[in-house]
From TrEMBL:
The keyword Oxidoreductase applies. Residues 2-135 form the Gfo/Idh/MocA-like oxidoreductase N-terminal domain. InterPro entries: Gfo/Idh/MocA-like_OxRdtase_N, Gfo/Idh/MocA_oxidrdct_glycsds, GFO_IDH_MocA-like_dom, NAD(P)-bd_dom_sf. This is Oxidoreductase. Residues 144-260 form the GFO/IDH/MocA-like oxidoreductase domain. Pfam families: GFO_IDH_MocA, GFO_IDH_MocA_C3. It comes from Paenibacillus odorifer. Keywords: Oxidoreductase.
Length: 337
């Protein structure tokens, strides 16, 4: 039985909690034993804000050991794996410490506040021999998994163009402090940058236009072009200033030599050049669930992490930093070494 501790009980912590409950009910050999958050007494009776709904309004945590201090949790619990769902700027130090103390670690995205910190996490995992995976959930999201498949198999030929977009209203608290979150580019846009890196490999250079709207938050709106030597045209845009009734949206449109594939956030439509369009049958499970299934199975079966290696997540953060550098230089092309 794999014993798990969860650190952080905000929106993503609750999303992970919901999935651990589901996995336990499904008979997976795991047990969520403890939850730690500085504000656990306050958070356990309230609802966390996020861009998607969690499974519960109020959480009954009576079955779990609750802590407001990480060291207390480690001292009092026998755990095999720890799930980190705390603010970005805390990821690296916490993950490195836990890996070196012998725990497997699942860490929310972004991997770290900087790529230098991310590389330290990679090195800590290598030294410890423990498994580390970052929650780049789009790699496990059914609509994006399908896109990965058709890119690799070239079912519709090679990619000629791709457009990725995500947008929402502004988050709150530490997210709006660029020094802590990195702003919209680091926190939100990294989903699409990571997917572009996963689908097409590291771009040769990037050019980004960005705009700040909310004081102190860094770039709140951004658009990036990714240059590849084979001349495919790839762009990704992000905006977390979409207020009113907008809600949340993520999607893509990718054109191939013999068709195009469009994801509108809920379903995937394929439009072959020489035939009728069709809707793809996808798994109903979200990436949040599927990434945990994958990571837990890798631990239990002692299998290597392949789909989302920490090295690849760190590389995506390097690309993000080049995008910020480009935005600072009003769209100047930044070459990735």
């Amino acid at each position: 039985m794999l014993k798990i501790g969860l650190i952080g009980f905000g929106f993503m912590g609750r999303m992970h909690f919901d999935n651990y409950v589901r996995l336990t009910e499904e008979g997976h050999p795991i047990a969520l034993k403890a939850i730690c958050d500085l504000r656990i007494e306050e958070l356990k009776d309230g609802k966390a804000d996020g861009n998607m709904s969690t499974a519960r309004e109020v959480y009954d945590l009576t079955a779990y050991s609750l802590y407001d201090d990480l060291e207390k949790m480690i001292a009092n619990e026998e755990l095999d794996m720890i799930d980190i769902a705390v603010p970005t700027y805390l990821h690296a130090e916490m993950a490195c410490s836990l890996l070196e103390r012998g725990y497997h670690v699942f860490c929310e995205k972004p991997m770290a506040r900087t790529s230098v910190e991310a590389k330290k996490m990679v090195e800590a995992a290598e030294r410890s021999g423990k498994k580390l995976m970052i929650g780049q959930c789009l790699r496990f999201w059914p609509g994006y998994e399908y896109l990965k498949e058709v890119v690799e198999t070239e079912q519709f030929g090679k990619v000629t163009e791709g457009y990725f977009y995500r947008g929402s209203g502004a988050p709150k608290d530490w997210f709006l402090d660029e020094k802590l979150s990195g702003g919209c580019i680091v926190d939100m846009h990294i989903h699409d940058t990571d997917m572009i890196n996963y689908l097409f490999g590291r771009p040769d250079k990037v050019s980004t236009l960005g705009r700040n709207v909310l004081p102190g938050s860094g770039y709140d709106i951004a658009s990036t072009h990714y240059f590849y030597k084979d001349a495919k045209v790839i762009n990704a845009q992000v905006d977390w200033t979409l207020e009113g009734d907008f809600g949340f949206y993520m999607g893509y449109r990718v054109n191939f030599e013999r068709g195009n594939v469009v994801f509108d956030g809920s379903g995937v439509k394929v439009n072959p050049n020489d035939g009728a369009g069709f809707t793809v049958e996808l798994s109903p499970d979200a990436g949040y669930y599927r990434e945990l299934v994958y990571f837990l199975d890798a631990i239990i079966q002692d299998k290597p992490i392949i789909i989302c290696t920490p090295e690849s997540a760190a590389e995506s953060l390097e690309i993000i930093e080049a995008e910020v550098q480009s935005a600072n230089a009003e769209g100047e092309w930044i070459v990735l070494n």
